[in-house]
Amino acid sequence: MQGFERKDGALLVDGLSVAALADQFGTPSYIYSGARLLANYRQFAKAISGLDCQIHFAVKANSALGVISLLAGAGAGADIVSGGELERALRAGVAAEKIIFSGVGKQDAEIAAALRAGIGQINAESAAEIDRISLVAEQMGCIAPVALRVNVNVDPGSHAKISTGQASTKFGIPTADGQAAHLYRRISTDPHIRAAGLAVHIGSQIRDLAPFEAAYTALLSLAEQLQEEGLEVPGLDLGGGLGVDYQQSQPTDFAGYGALVTRLFGNRGYRLGFEPGRSITADAGILLTRTLYIKPGDDKQFVIVDAAMNDLLRPTLYEAFHLIEPVAEKLASAPVGLVDIVGPVCETGDYLALGREMGQLARDDLLAVFGAGAYGAVMASTYNTRPEAAEILVVDGTVHCLRPRRSLDDLLAAEINPLV
Fold first, then answer.
1. Assuming Cys at both sites, which of 138, 154, 275, 285 could form a disulfide with 79, CB separation 3.0 to 4.6 Å?
2. Which whole number is the average pLDDT over 64-82?
3. Which of 246, 245, 150 minimizes the C-alpha distance to 202?
4. Distance CA 57, CA 52 (A)
5. Neighbours of 124 (CB within 10 A)
6. Active-site position among 53, 142, 346, 401
7. 401: annotated active-site residue
8. Which CATH superfamily is domain 4-31+282-413 in?
9. How many C-beta neighbours within 10 Å does residue 39 have?
């Protein structure tokens, strides 16, 4: 089996009982399917197999060491956005030359660590950042491989908080007024920098291919302009952002995306980079939670569960939809009415779902929150002094605890109280 399926009424992950994992590790817990992770990665790789390229998994989507290692074993590099993610990628076994460092706010120590590790590329996003990279490289006596992230002013059509391609955002250098071309010329003549090419990333959860085509066409136009000037543009980093179906869990259109980039970039001589994150991990993970109380309301019920916004922030932060089903098929009966599935955190915004049709539930019923493998555990907090959910990975029939749930003693031991 690849992922989450039902057999004889039971929800399974790669052939193993989800309910049994809940009994073993408790709730809330994140459960990841190793088979689904690898299947998604291989489908993406197959879709772009005719191109000279490297896939860099976007670590921000799911930074569990076991997940990164599993994908690295299949050939993935890593797209990182912090010094912490750099260390995670290296410890997970990602080859340094397969690491791309993105993000608008790199600190000197992070730049130095990246150069010391010998990573493949730093994506610079401002003139000031280029100056710092050059200075750090000069101090270290090395040459920094730098690509320029450009802003092509394309609206990806996704949620405003995960849209990065418009001129109004903090990301990249505008192409329209010549700024990007000017800065690339500067990179190309800096003695402490090796010009690695151009990069673009217009946002996340993009399900229409048209914004990708618009962004990539603009990127290609700039690359050709610079080459006509005699500048080297060896690589084009096409970013990530390919969206997934949270509503119905339909397969991601890897083939359609691959056909688009092959049509635009095939036989043009560029080394291409891709940074998929959500499309690899989202449907490979669920959040398991148990019901605590059923509370009647005026026109609906409140199903209070043991998972909360500190465990899965996406519904609160992005108004995001996640399919939620009872783990036991006998409970997935005809809906009896509308419910809000809410957590114990003292915030009205603490919910996993609002206004859902759901069958009759009772205390201790297990629920599975699907599509939770991306931007789930990685965005969790300990708000309300709630220990983080455990993270579990199933690979080839073996269950691995990637991150055990901390006890309250563990949580409080990380603090210092000078007043007692």
1. 275
2. 98
3. 150
4. 17
5. 31
6. 346
7. no
8. Lyase, Ornithine Decarboxylase; Chain A, domain 1 (2.40.37.10)
9. 16
